[in-house]
């Protein structure tokens, strides 16, 4: 079996007195599609933000392709490694956020070309060529010169996906990417993710409340509760036959609220 691309070992994350991740360990294989599900506040977004080095950690180890992500203890918390190391990590991992986070004063094309030009020194013409391929892939080549404010939420999110792909990451993190969308726009974003899952060998980690999508998309489901992984398994095992009481209760509530699992 291939070595894990991500190894998370005994991570803790505290905000003051609040323990958000409590000795969490998990491994992800190259190319795996994982869905992180669980109640609100259970720490799913936090683990993605930690992988993206947007947060410090309070303890534990994380390796990405064998490289330590955090070290150099400072004021009792572990901080991301130095800038060059961090830059290398950022090229390995792309993230798409719930609220798009596009640069509002840049057109769609510039949103996608900015990171490769600034961080990798890619020439403008090459960055634009690649950006147009990515915009074509997400169905937005005709919007290249539009400003973000001129786009629908679904279109903004597809630009955000193209932007994250522009650095050719091996790992993509999706944090509730459809939660801020009107229901009729959800499917267009999910379709792009289906396409990425089918056509690339990228490792994909998805935090979602769309249980039906998680079921269809993921190779493996991780169920989070109170900062721990309570249960994990193949989608059919978790959704049809959850073993843990906390997973059963969570899924019962989801079904009672009328969602497909
Ligand atoms: N910057 C912060 N300062 C203090 N507490 C925080 C901060 N960020 C997150 N938290 C807390 O950490 C806990 C875990 O948050 P997180 O966003 O990871 O949960 P989640 O499982 O993704 O929830 P949801 O499904 O609602 O997004 C929550 O109790 C949240 O209030």
UniProtKB/TrEMBL annotation:
GO cellular component labels: plasma membrane
InterPro entries (UniProt xref): AAA+_ATPase (IPR003593), ABC_ATPase_HisP-typ (IPR030679), ABC_transporter-like_ATP-bd (IPR003439), ABC_transporter-like_CS (IPR017871), Ectoine_EhuA (IPR014343), MetN_ABC_transporter-like (IPR050086), P-loop_NTPase (IPR027417)
Residue ranges occupied by any ABC transporter domain in the UniProt entry: 6-251
Main location: membrane
Top-level lineage group: Bacteria
Keywords: Amino-acid transport, ATP-binding, Cell membrane, Membrane, Nucleotide-binding, Transport
GO terms of molecular function: ABC-type amino acid transporter activity; ATP binding; ATP hydrolysis activity
Any matching Pfam family: ABC_tran
Topology with respect to the bilayer: Peripheral membrane protein
Statement: the UniProt record of this protein carries the keyword Cell membrane: yes
UniProt-annotated location(s): Cell membrane
Entry similarity comment: Belongs to the ABC transporter superfamily.
Entry protein name: Ectoine/hydroxyectoine ABC transporter ATP-binding protein EhuA
């Amino acid at each position: 079996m291939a070595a894990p691309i991500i190894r998370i070992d005994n991570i803790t994350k505290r905000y003051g007195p609040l323990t958000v991740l409590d000795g969490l360990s998990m491994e992800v294989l190259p190319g795996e599609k994982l869905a992180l599900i669980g109640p609100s506040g259970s720490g799913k977004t936090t683990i993605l933000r930690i992988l993206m080095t947007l947060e410090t950690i309070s303890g534990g180890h994380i390796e990405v392709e064998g490289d330590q992500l955090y070290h150099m203890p400072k004021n009792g918390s572990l901080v991301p490694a130095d800038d060059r190391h961090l830059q290398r990590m950022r090229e390995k991992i792309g993230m798409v956020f719930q609220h798009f986070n596009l640069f509002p004063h840049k057109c769609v094309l510039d949103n996608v070309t900015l990171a490769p030009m600034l961080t990798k020194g890619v020439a403008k013409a090459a960055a634009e060529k690649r950006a147009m391929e990515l915009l074509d892939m997400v169905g937005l080549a005709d919007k290249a010169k539009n400003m973000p404010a001129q786009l629908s939420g679904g279109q903004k999110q597809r630009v955000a996906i193209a932007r994250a792909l522009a650095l050719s990451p091996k790992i993509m993190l999706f944090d509730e990417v459809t939660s801020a969308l009107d229901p009729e726009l959800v499917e267009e974003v999910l379709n792009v993710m289906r396409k990425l899952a089918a056509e690339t060998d990228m490792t994909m980690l998805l935090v979602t409340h769309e249980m039906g999508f998680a079921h269809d998309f993921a190779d493996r489901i991780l169920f989070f509760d109170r900062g721990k992984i309570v249960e994990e398994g193949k989608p059919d095992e978790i959704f049809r036959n959850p073993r843990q009481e906390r997973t059963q209760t969570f899924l019962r509530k989801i079904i009672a609220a009328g969602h497909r699992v």
